[in-house]
Design goal:
two-stranded antiparallel ribbon, globular, single chain
């Protein structure tokens, strides 16, 4: 019994890499065998790993260090080899035991200095993209936050997201029950006429945080940066609207916050413009002004070349497109990495249609993404990520 049992595990371990189409079946069968009684799984793993090494079938993983150097490669255990899947597939599984085992086996690859950032602040505690929302992020001990910037008709830069997605962002319908787009208004009009809609289903905070709340208004970028300068947190400025590049850079210069800010955009021409305006280098040859190339669901094979061509210092992946392979490629090219999570509406859609087994954006989802070795995570529930990262 023991000889047959151990032999089956060894065969599955050897054939896993050669029969890629049946990996999920092999993985399931392997864990079934491991659950049978009276077998020394650890000894079997060691023996099988040695056999795989003799056949030059090694999986190697490197941990990226802050000085961009890599540690020596280490062989993975058999359980990592057999049960490794793309993170998005592990999010899809409804087998909670398998998911937890995978998270445990892959947790060693999480970046030790993971940076925790609040997406639009702390949107489950306070209204998104408001001064108070960002202040809460700083108070809870996060490393920073991400915000969205638009240029108003008068040239003032404000922090706002709005509807319309990435195709036509800044729409006021629903968000504020006002027609039009945010960039069609002046600063005076925004402050005096536009109010957030407390019944909008896209807001994650309690509705009382919006009703009769003097803090629930659209702030200027300068207001938010002044607060961030005092707290010392990192600010990821997404250049959401057109014509935001020059004003944002000049404002950061004015407040002497270059070391605290990263400029990002899905429209890579905008971060290329930032690089054109500010090509200065540090003494170590890295760019003084940091920029991030945002990628959506479809990440092109040449994403590294695209980011470097735009003069980016970072790549920002959508949470379910971030893989070890993409993270390692980025780090080898000298690019820092971050993942971003969709807003409440988008995450609800993903969890309902693709990741039903997870239930909600929480620890399991965060730990799956952390296992890719990504350096920073911009999430909707930073308080949960802080706990998961401990």
């Amino acid at each position: 019994y023991h000889k047959c049992h151990n032999a089956l595990i060894a065969v599955i371990g050897r054939t896993y890499k050669t029969r890629k189409r049946h990996r999920r079946k092999y993985s399931t069968f392997f864990w079934f065998l491991c659950s049978l009684p009276h077998t020394n799984i650890k000894t079997t793993n060691e023996r099988t790993t040695n056999n795989m090494n003799n056949n030059n079938n090694k999986m190697r993983v490197s941990s990226f260090k802050e000085d961009s150097k890599f540690s020596e490669e280490k062989n993975c255990e058999l359980c990592d080899e057999v049960d490794y899947v793309d993170p998005s597939e592990m999010m899809r599984t409804t087998d909670e035991t398998r998911r937890r085992n995978w998270i445990e086996s892959q947790s060693k690859y999480a970046f030790e200095g993971l940076k925790v950032l609040g997406h639009r602040g702390s949107m489950y505690h306070e209204l998104e993209n408001t001064r108070r929302s960002f202040q809460v992020v700083s108070e809870m001990g996060c490393d920073g936050f991400e915000l969205d910037v638009f240029a108003l008709k008068c040239g003032t830069l404000v922090v706002f997201h709005g509807g319309g997605g990435d195709v036509s962002p800044g729409k006021l319908d629903g968000y504020c029950n006002v027609k039009g787009n945010i960039h069609e208004y002046t600063a005076d009009e925004v402050r005096s006429k536009i109010r957030f809609n407390p019944d909008f289903h896209g807001f994650a905070c309690p509705s009382e945080k919006i009703r009769n709340n003097n803090d629930a208004y659209i702030p200027t970028l300068e207001e938010i940066l002044q607060d961030a300068k005092e707290s010392g947190v990192t600010v990821k400025i997404e250049l959401k609207g057109p014509g935001t590049e020059k004003g944002a850079v000049e404002l950061v210069d004015k407040l002497d916050m270059v070391d605290q800010v990263v400029f990002s955009s899905f429209k890579h021409g905008r971060i290329a413009m930032v690089r054109e305006m500010r090509p200065e280098l540090n003494s170590d040859g890295t760019y003084k002004y940091k920029t991030g190339a945002l990628f959506n669901s479809k990440v092109p094979d040449n994403f590294v070349e695209i980011a470097l061509k735009a003069g980016a210092t970072e790549v920002h992946f959508k949470y379910d497109t971030c893989t070890k392979e993409r993270v390692e490629r980025s780090h080898k090219a000298g690019l820092h990495t971050m993942v971003w999570f969709r807003g409440p509406i988008g995450m609800a859609q993903d969890l309902k249609s693709k990741y039903r087994g997870l239930g909600y954006e929480g620890k399991d989802m965060y730990r799956i993404v952390m296992a890719t070795g990504v350096q920073a995570m911009c999430v909707n529930r930073p308080h949960i990520l802080l706990d998961a990262a401990r």
